[in-house]
Amino acid sequence: MKIQKIVYWIATVITCGIFTYSAFMYFSNTAAVESYFEALHYPSYIVIPLAIVKVLGIAMVLWRGIPWLTEWAYAGFFFDAVLAFAAHINADDGGYLFSLLVLIALPISYFLGKKVRPMYG
């Protein structure tokens, strides 16, 4: 159980770290991120709302206090990572590494979290 807990926390820190970095970039360098979104054929007006939702998702994944919100946070992270991965592959810009890393770490965090940090509610 101790190894599972360590692997869970490593995967969770990787996932939350990448989304924290992403949200920080969205807030601190909004104009550049908006132009990058447009280059990837995503609407630029979703940058700030997406950053806010990422911060809320990080809080839910770490807190795990409301089970259905935690599930939605994981689902949102999954869809965000899949869409980011697809956009970067389609743009052929080589920027898919972080989304690929999330796509590996996220299911580990999700499934091991159910074992080592069960939710109640």
Summarize the structure in short.
The protein has 121 residues and is mainly α. It has helices at residues 2-28, 30-39, 47-63, 67-91, 97-116. Helix 1 (2-28) runs antiparallel to helix 3 (47-63), helix 1 crosses helix 5 (97-116) and helix 4 (67-91) runs antiparallel to helix 5.
End-to-end span in angstroms? 23 Å
Mean pLDDT over the residues: 95
Secondary structural class: mainly alpha
Figure out the total of helices.
5
Count of extended strands = 0
**Largest sheet properties:** none
The Cα radius of gyration reads 15 Å
Helix content: over 70%
Uncertain parts: none
Strand percentage:
under 5%
Shape: globular
Give, in order, the helices and strands.
HHHHH
